[in-house]
Amino acid sequence: MDDNQFRNTMGKFATGVTVVLTGVNGEVHGMTVNAFMSVSLNPKLVTISIGENARFLNKIKSSKVFSVNILASDQEEYSRVFSGKLKDDFQIEFDYLDEKPVLPGALAQITCEVVAEHAEGDHILFIGKVTDIHVEEKTPLIFYGGKYHSLADK
Question: Where is 28: in which H helix or E strand?
Protein backbone atom coordinates (compact mmCIF):
# COMPACT_ATOMS: atom_id res chain seq x y z
CA MET A 1 0.00 0.00 0.00
CA ASP A 2 1.23 3.53 -0.63
CA ASP A 3 1.16 6.51 1.74
CA ASN A 4 -1.91 8.11 0.10
CA GLN A 5 -3.93 4.90 0.36
CA PHE A 6 -3.02 4.57 4.04
CA ARG A 7 -3.80 8.25 4.75
CA ASN A 8 -7.17 8.05 2.93
CA THR A 9 -8.09 4.88 4.80
CA MET A 10 -7.26 6.45 8.18
CA GLY A 11 -9.38 9.45 7.12
CA LYS A 12 -12.42 7.15 7.21
CA PHE A 13 -12.23 7.22 11.00
CA ALA A 14 -14.22 10.24 12.18
CA THR A 15 -12.41 12.19 14.91
CA GLY A 16 -12.89 15.25 16.96
CA VAL A 17 -10.54 18.15 16.32
CA THR A 18 -8.14 19.46 18.94
CA VAL A 19 -5.60 22.22 19.14
CA VAL A 20 -2.71 21.46 21.47
CA LEU A 21 -1.03 24.50 23.04
CA THR A 22 2.06 25.08 25.13
CA GLY A 23 3.94 28.10 26.38
CA VAL A 24 7.69 28.66 25.98
CA ASN A 25 9.47 31.82 27.15
CA GLY A 26 6.19 33.73 27.43
CA GLU A 27 5.01 32.81 23.90
CA VAL A 28 2.11 30.49 23.09
CA HIS A 29 2.67 27.82 20.44
CA GLY A 30 0.08 25.44 19.06
CA MET A 31 -0.75 22.72 16.59
CA THR A 32 -3.96 21.14 15.31
CA VAL A 33 -3.99 17.48 16.38
CA ASN A 34 -6.55 14.74 15.83
CA ALA A 35 -4.34 11.98 17.26
CA PHE A 36 -5.53 12.35 20.86
CA MET A 37 -7.01 9.83 23.27
CA SER A 38 -7.61 9.16 26.92
CA VAL A 39 -5.37 6.48 28.40
CA SER A 40 -6.22 6.00 32.05
CA LEU A 41 -8.75 7.05 34.65
CA ASN A 42 -6.46 6.42 37.64
CA PRO A 43 -4.20 8.27 37.24
CA LYS A 44 -5.90 10.54 34.73
CA LEU A 45 -3.74 10.29 31.58
CA VAL A 46 -4.12 11.30 27.93
CA THR A 47 -1.91 10.83 24.86
CA ILE A 48 -1.16 13.11 21.94
CA SER A 49 0.89 12.19 18.88
CA ILE A 50 3.21 14.76 17.26
CA GLY A 51 5.16 14.19 14.04
CA GLU A 52 8.94 14.15 14.40
CA ASN A 53 9.25 16.94 11.80
CA ALA A 54 6.65 19.24 13.38
CA ARG A 55 8.01 22.59 14.61
CA PHE A 56 5.78 22.19 17.65
CA LEU A 57 7.67 19.07 18.79
CA ASN A 58 10.59 20.94 20.35
CA LYS A 59 8.23 23.40 22.03
CA ILE A 60 6.44 20.67 23.96
CA LYS A 61 9.73 18.86 24.72
CA SER A 62 11.03 22.11 26.20
CA SER A 63 7.96 23.12 28.23
CA LYS A 64 6.93 19.62 29.44
CA VAL A 65 3.32 20.87 29.67
CA PHE A 66 0.44 21.22 27.23
CA SER A 67 -3.27 21.83 26.92
CA VAL A 68 -5.65 19.95 24.68
CA ASN A 69 -8.50 22.11 23.41
CA ILE A 70 -11.38 20.09 21.97
CA LEU A 71 -12.92 22.37 19.38
CA ALA A 72 -16.61 23.22 19.15
CA SER A 73 -18.39 23.19 15.79
CA ASP A 74 -18.02 26.98 15.43
CA GLN A 75 -14.22 26.88 15.88
CA GLU A 76 -13.05 25.52 12.53
CA GLU A 77 -11.01 28.70 12.06
CA TYR A 78 -8.81 27.78 15.05
CA SER A 79 -8.11 24.41 13.48
CA ARG A 80 -7.09 26.06 10.21
CA VAL A 81 -4.86 28.61 11.97
CA PHE A 82 -2.95 25.99 13.96
CA SER A 83 -2.63 23.60 11.01
CA GLY A 84 -0.99 26.37 8.99
CA LYS A 85 -3.82 26.58 6.46
CA LEU A 86 -4.89 30.09 7.49
CA LYS A 87 -1.98 32.51 7.33
CA ASP A 88 -3.79 35.82 7.88
CA ASP A 89 -2.82 37.92 10.86
CA PHE A 90 -5.29 36.05 13.05
CA GLN A 91 -5.17 37.40 16.59
CA ILE A 92 -6.09 35.16 19.50
CA GLU A 93 -6.57 36.26 23.08
CA PHE A 94 -5.70 33.09 24.99
CA ASP A 95 -7.29 32.15 28.27
CA TYR A 96 -5.32 30.32 30.96
CA LEU A 97 -6.25 27.25 32.99
CA ASP A 98 -3.80 25.92 35.57
CA GLU A 99 -1.33 28.54 34.25
CA LYS A 100 -1.36 26.91 30.80
CA PRO A 101 -2.72 28.59 27.64
CA VAL A 102 -6.12 27.42 26.40
CA LEU A 103 -8.45 28.49 23.60
CA PRO A 104 -11.47 30.53 24.66
CA GLY A 105 -14.80 28.92 23.90
CA ALA A 106 -13.43 25.40 23.35
CA LEU A 107 -15.82 22.56 24.06
CA ALA A 108 -13.23 21.22 26.52
CA GLN A 109 -9.88 22.41 27.83
CA ILE A 110 -7.58 19.79 29.35
CA THR A 111 -4.26 20.82 30.93
CA CYS A 112 -1.45 18.32 31.29
CA GLU A 113 2.09 17.71 32.47
CA VAL A 114 4.22 15.41 30.31
CA VAL A 115 5.01 12.22 32.24
CA ALA A 116 6.41 10.12 29.37
CA GLU A 117 7.48 10.28 25.74
CA HIS A 118 7.56 7.34 23.33
CA ALA A 119 9.07 7.40 19.84
CA GLU A 120 6.92 5.30 17.51
CA GLY A 121 7.44 5.37 13.75
CA ASP A 122 7.71 8.98 12.61
CA HIS A 123 5.84 10.37 15.63
CA ILE A 124 6.44 11.00 19.33
CA LEU A 125 3.65 10.00 21.70
CA PHE A 126 3.39 12.27 24.73
CA ILE A 127 1.62 10.90 27.80
CA GLY A 128 0.15 13.74 29.81
CA LYS A 129 -1.05 13.65 33.41
CA VAL A 130 -4.22 15.73 33.52
CA THR A 131 -3.93 18.62 35.96
CA ASP A 132 -7.22 20.44 35.29
CA ILE A 133 -10.24 20.46 32.98
CA HIS A 134 -12.96 22.85 31.91
CA VAL A 135 -15.97 21.65 29.88
CA GLU A 136 -18.76 23.49 28.04
CA GLU A 137 -21.97 22.03 26.63
CA LYS A 138 -21.43 22.55 22.90
CA THR A 139 -21.51 20.61 19.65
CA PRO A 140 -18.08 19.22 18.61
CA LEU A 141 -16.18 19.91 15.40
CA ILE A 142 -15.69 16.63 13.53
CA PHE A 143 -13.09 15.70 10.90
CA TYR A 144 -13.91 12.94 8.41
CA GLY A 145 -12.68 12.16 4.92
CA GLY A 146 -10.44 15.23 4.82
CA LYS A 147 -13.30 17.64 5.62
CA TYR A 148 -14.80 19.36 8.64
CA HIS A 149 -18.30 18.37 9.76
CA SER A 150 -20.58 18.87 12.71
CA LEU A 151 -23.01 16.42 14.25
CA ALA A 152 -25.85 18.32 12.59
CA ASP A 153 -24.42 17.58 9.09
CA LYS A 154 -26.48 15.21 6.97
Answer: strand 27-33
d(CA 86, CA 122): 25
pLDDT in tens, 25-76: 999 999 999 899 999 999 999 999 999 999 999 999 999 999 999 999 999 9
Q: What is the pTM of this model?
A: 0.92
The whole-angstrom separation of Cα 5 and Cα 97 is 40
Q: How far apart are the C-alpha atoms of 60 and 15, rounded to whole Å?
A: 23
Domains and CATH numbers, the chain: 3-8+15-40+56-146 (2.30.110.10)
Task: Say if residue 80 is exposed, middle or buried (CB neighbours under 10 Å; 0-12, 13-18, 19+).
Answer: middle
